[in-house]
Amino acid sequence: MQFNKTGFTRSLGLLTCAGTLLACTQKELKTEPPNIILFLVDDMGWTDTSVPFEKMMSDNNRYHKTPNMENLAKQSVKFTNAYSASPVCSPTRCSILTGKNPARSQITNWIPGQSNDIPESEQKLFIPDWNVNGLQSNSITFPKVLQDHGYTTAHIGKAHFGLEGTSGADPKQLGFDYNIAGHHAGQPGSYYYPYGKKGSHKKVPDLEEFAKDSLYLNQALTVKANQLLEQFSKEKKPFFLNLAHYAVHTPIQENKQLVAQFIQKDKTETQAKYASMVASMDNSLGSIMQKLEELQIADNTIIIFMSDNGGLVTHAGHPTSNAPLSDGKGTCREGGIRVPMMIKWPGIVEAGSQCDEPVISDDFFPTILEMAGISTKPYLKSIDGKDLGPLLTGNGNFKRPQGLCFHYPHYWAWKSLRDSYPSIKPFSAIRMGKWKLCYGYEDEKVELFNLDEDISEQNNLLLKEPEIANRLCSQLRDYLNKVKAQTPLDRQNNKPLKYPHL
């Protein structure tokens, strides 16, 4: 094992967090259960922040202003290879709560997704009979487990865990003692009060108290979050808060108090509006962190920051860019699934450190339970996530021999847009070390990329590295077969297509 100049160590072909390991090996875990906050952003791209997650600052990093994310980064370990389980929202959000990859849970699309009532000229394959209901009241979620171990649990903001009219549409049925503004919808009717038209299924609930102040949605959710934090600090019980902003999902509606600073000659009106939405989200993060300090509970509160999928770049005015990653939300490319992620764990994680180990949203279920001192052994056979504790505490080894798997057997968006972005397609993919293999079901196309040398996924190395491609394809196929993953159907015989193959 050798250390390189950046403070990382290479083991089994994967980078691990040497800086964190060295700093934490002698530290003892706190015996008092920590408070935990998951600060989840919707559709936030890898570069939609002034915190760079790559060695070089991108143009987008320089454009965005997120000083509170910068502050959090100074107190956290920053994950440069963090992934959402899906290029769209519901599958990722459900993977977080359950630890199950979408391939296993069969919650493989945003809820309710699209049907098969589409002509063959628009959609070559049928989509499978996937779990459109999403999570339900009988689903095993980590908030339920936390409840059973004395935690108070709260959800604020976007839920999108279950189909309208089912139990999973209500976060209280999934293990949350409190639910504010969370329901079945995946986007708000508006970011301006009353946050959607009366009677619209997209109207954000529970925020009528802001009629007088007419707060921007991000601000309203933050006020409610801070009110709960004040309450929880008085109750002297450990808590878990899932603060899940609707931002920066469409509609692209600016925070009118912030947008002026982003108006530039080389930026479009949509990009300026979007940047103000990001800045408003960042203000929310700062407000939460300040409240924790005021309540004197910051030292025993873990903050996990993440986005549920990559940034939207294909339409709606092309609000952002994920460069140097290619493409974005809804695609098989890095721009669709690589996301910003940081974890602050006072006294445990080395402040200002960095981890290059590939991690995924599936990992939150076991990681959060272990953070709370709760054994994950009863759940390990039925989940896909791995406890990130060894990367955070320095105790034990972190190994993931099966790699990271992604499975999206659906069509996202409409045909004319898909024709412009070939990476929008039903696909399965696997990330192993520096290698990523993508398999498209329509044309049985296999693509192999070396992400260390080609982060933009421009050079398909299938012909140059057939052995690596065969190994990754076989590993991906074995996993999909193991969890009985659904594949698209042949329209002619209505039979499922084969798993990825060369």
Explain what the structure shows.
By secondary structure, the protein is of the alpha/beta class. The protein folds into 2 domains: 360 residues, Alkaline Phosphatase, subunit A (3-Layer(aba) Sandwich), CATH 3.40.720.10; 79 residues, Arylsulfatase, C-terminal domain (2-Layer Sandwich), CATH 3.30.1120.10. Helix content is 25%, strand content 14%. It is built from 13 helices and 16 strands. It has an 8-stranded mixed beta sheet, with helices on both faces. A hairpin with a 4-residue loop joins strand 15 and strand 16. Helix 3 crosses helix 8 and helix 7 packs parallel to helix 8. It starts with 8 loop residues before the first strand and ends in a 20-residue tail after the last helix.
